[in-house]
Specification:
Oligomer: heterodimer
Shape of chain A: globular
Largest sheet of chain A: 2 strands, antiparallel
Structural class of chain B: mainly alpha
Helix content of chain B: 55-70%
Number of helices of chain B: 14
Number of strands of chain B: 2
Largest interface: A-B, 48 and 47 residues
Strand order of the largest sheet of chain B: 1-2
Number of domains of chain B: 1
Distance between the termini of chain A: 38 Å
Largest sheet of chain B: 2 strands, antiparallel
Distance between the termini of chain B: 18 Å
Order of helices and strands of chain B: HHHHHHEEHHHHHHHH
Strand content of chain B: under 5%
Shape of chain B: globular
């Protein structure tokens, strides 16, 4: 209890930063759920590939130790690489694992199985990445990239955590500020995109009633593809921010984070964009408060208990499920 | 697909045409062969890199898990992604009662474990079964993870090191059974390696396998009784259309809870089996990945068909052991297989017959096939 009171603002701010990452990943789950009504179990791997793309690009560019404008450039570049890779993986995922099922009108549980399969394939492919290069004889040359595939891969030392200003006794660091600001920018852009643009209107239309949307001339397949790609971009952004905060990634890094993000999406009301954002922040902060109260080893338990309690009182999540509605 | 199912169908028809005593004889023969599998050690089927009897035990134990989860997913239509939680509760109940905090014999531990898991199933189900399908999935996923974390963080339950010295079932040495060994396809009786009939020891998994198979057969029989009773019909009605079932007077919530509790109890029983065979359990035996594997068994086998899920469970356990030399790429191949199955055989390996019948009659009435959630190929014959 004491811990919570003394470090209240520290816990809040670090909770918000991790919550922002949850929220960005949760957007991918919620968007796909909104239009397809299925849990995209493999979204966590989309995130993981983004994190590797960022690490590799920054390694290849020898980004460690950059300062000033160069640093900003490298951070942006890493973020863009992560977004591109995640978007690509999400795109392929939709093409390979979901579209054939949709064509055959499979029941939703089968899509879950396909997604589980895809998730295994993606994460194991990353975990076995040394093998194909070993056959080609390139493993020594590329050891930094593909060596020790089951271990942690660190981000090149890029951004050193420095305190910027004091906020009620907590020294807010530059990493906190970067994560929160860039996450909020991405969220606002996405929210406005879905609310105002023509493509966003298509997404909302399909989420509301796929059949009527098709009758009104919305290309169902294109909207679904777009949804996956947007979810991938958000996951990529989240991957870069995650690297800044945690510093390492590995072939199964997406797993727990994916479960947390999915929890966040459900917490806010799955299918609802703002719900996913709220859910992410609430989850991140609540986890921190919870670990201050009962010990950090119970962090994940706090998260899941919170979920169960909230679902008991609000069975459709905090904000309800309504991607289709204008309030989106 | 027809090329695969047609010979199967003719086999089934021929079997059905046999006179009743011959049928029974045939069934008894199959059961005896199943019991003798680890003794016979048949070439091609046996596993080179790991103890065949242990693999068979795992097959039987996971079949039990699949039968239990099939009640929850296949009969009642509740997606449970935290089934490993019940498995863990069963295993740790045996651990706590039999080793860590009391030295009760296994005969008392196992029923106690079943009761404890059943209660935990009711405790989880009572508040959460009111939420809708997809939410139930995440809530149960969370439950499974909570159980694991509680096990890791509670020193009373052994913490991360778990519980050791879990008691074995009572042994009784009656006679020795010699194993068979093979050279090519010629069988020899190997008199040096024998199994002491019903002596449960760490070195010999065969008696455990016999125990597991016996339990599986009993549970299969109970499962059959349940499915063909009022309870089974209520589950089916709830699964197909909850509102309609409620209107017809089925107390759907109570039956969903019953399915959950029954499934949990079977999960607990398999957990207890696991614990007594392993002797030593720790929380790492119960990660989420197992829940995923269990769901895969049920869906791959064809939800709602007990033989289907048993087949899938056996295959999913046996194949990775058989092809152990591919150990690195095991999960990669497993993932690919799941994807291929989802695309090419979405109804599972052996879909339940009743659903095929419903499909056929729907087609006869000219109902648009797209409206049918099952969506099963029409070539697959029924009855």
């Amino acid at each position: 209890m004491n811990l919570l009171i003394h470090h209240f603002w520290e816990l809040t701010i670090t909770g918000l930063t991790i919550g922002a990452i949850y929220a960005l990943v949760a957007l991918g789950y919620t968007l796909v759920y909104g239009v397809l009504r299925l849990i995209n179990f493999a979204h966590s791997e989309v995130f993981m590939y983004g994190s590797f793309a960022a690490v590799w690009v920054l390694m290849a560019l020898n980004a460690a130790g950059a300062t000033g404008l160069g640093l900003v450039g490298f951070l942006l570049l890493g973020g863009i690489a992560a977004m591109a890779a995640s978007a690509l993986v999400a795109f392929i995922l939709e093409l390979v694992a979901y579209r054939p099922l949709r064509k055959r009108n499979s029941p939703p549980l089968i899509a879950l199985i396909s997604a589980i399969g895809a998730s295994f394939v993606l994460s194991e492919a990353m975990g076995l990445r040394d093998k194909p290069f070993a056959w080609l004889g390139l493993d020594a040359k590329l050891a930094d990239y593909v060596g020790r595939p089951r271990e942690n891969t660190p981000l090149p030392a890029l951004l050193h955590s420095q305190k910027l200003f004091n906020f009620f006794g907590y020294n807010v660091t530059n990493v906190d500020v970067i994560i929160l600001v860039s996450a909020i920018i991405m969220m606002v852009v996405l929210d406005q995109f879905v609310r105002r643009s023509r493509l966003g209107r298509g997404i909302r239309a399909v989420a509301m009633d796929a059949e009527s949307a098709a009758l009104m001339g919305v290309n169902h397949n294109r909207v679904i593809r777009l949804t996956f790609v947007i979810g991938g971009i958000m996951a990529g952004g989240a991957a870069m921010l995650y690297l800044l905060k945690i510093g390492v990634t590995r072939y199964n890094a997406g797993f727990i984070l994916g479960i947390k993000a999915f929890t966040a999406a459900v917490l806010g009301g799955i299918g609802n964009l703002r719900g996913a954002l709220l859910g992410g922040f609430v989850l991140g902060v609540a986890e921190n408060y919870g670990s201050a109260l009962v010990g950090s080893q119970w962090k994940d338990v706090v998260a899941f208990v919170l979920l169960i309690v909230i679902l008991l009182f609000r069975p459709t999540g905090l904000l309800g499920e309504s991607l289709g509605k204008a309030r989106a | 697909m027809n090329a695969v199912t047609a010979p199967l169908r003719s086999v089934r028809e021929r079997f059905r045409a046999l006179p009743r005593p011959v049928k029974y004889l045939f069934i008894v023969a199959v059961v005896v062969i199943i019991y003798l599998l680890p003794i016979i050690n048949p070439p091609l089927i046996t596993t080179q890199d790991s103890d065949f009897a242990s693999v068979l035990f795992s097959c039987a134990m996971y079949s039990l898990v699949a039968i239990g989860l099939n009640i929850v997913i296949g009969y009642a239509g509740l997606l449970d992604l935290g089934y490993v939680g019940f498995f863990a509760v069963g295993a740790f109940s045996v651990g706590v009662l039999g080793s860590a905090h009391a030295k009760l014999p296994l005969i008392i531990c196992v029923p106690a474990a079943i009761v404890v898991t059943m209660i935990s199933g009711v405790l989880l189900g009572a508040p959460t079964l009111r939420v809708r399908g997809d939410y139930l999935a995440i809530v149960t996923l969370g439950f499974g993870e909570i159980i694991r974390l509680v096990l890791v963080n509670t020193s009373w339950l052994g913490g991360p090191r778990g519980i050791s010295n879990i008691p074995a079932p009572p042994s009784l040495h009656l006679f020795d059974v010699p194993h068979m060994s093979w050279e090519g396809f010629t069988a020899y009786l190997d008199l040096t390696t024998t199994t002491k009939f019903l002596v449960f020891s760490v070195t010999d998994a065969v008696p455990y396998y016999w125990l597991a198979v016996t339990i599986v057969l009993i549970v299969l029989f109970l499962d059959w009784l349940m499915q063909n009773s009022r309870v089974g019909r209520s589950w089916e009605a709830t699964r197909e259309d909850e509102d309609a079932a409620e209107l017809m007077g089925v107390p759907t919530f109570r039956f969903k809870l019953l399915a959950f509790a029954t499934g949990a109890a079977i999960g607990g029983l398999s957990g207890a089996l696991f614990a007594t065979k392993q002797v030593f359990i720790n929380p790492d035996n119960f990660t989420i990945i197992y829940s995923v594997l269990f769901v895969a068994m049920v869906v791959v086998g064809g939800q709602g068909n007990r033989w289907g899920v048993v087949t899938a469970a056996v295959l999913l356990i046996w194949l990775p052991e058989k092809f152990r030399f591919l150990s690195d790429a095991r999960f990669l191949l497993f993932g690919m297989a799941l994807m291929a199955l989802a695309i090419f055989r979405p109804q599972g390996l052996l879909p339940p017959r009743r659903r095929l019948r419903a499909q056929r009659s729907a087609e006869r009435e000219g109902v648009n096939a797209e409206e049918d959630p099952g969506h099963i190929e029409r070539e697959v014959a029924d009855v």
